[in-house]
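Practice problem: predict the structure.
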Amino acid sequence: MIILDQGGWEVNPIVRSVIELYGDGFWVWKLVIISISLVLLCLHSNFGRVRSLIKVAGFIYIAVVLYQIFLINFRIPQIH
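Answer:
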């Protein structure tokens, strides 16, 4: 939200469409989709393939969060 408020834009075309449809309320849609996905992955975490998928998804998510922190701290001009 901070990046979008500072003039950033959403790269994912599906999420971009949802933002255009729902405005600031898109985070509710995103929270629901992510929550359902996490519950399904946790319920099936005893399967080896799913466990690997959870690890890969976790690393990707961490990378995205770190990149966003970088953008917020170093690339977006600060408004005073």
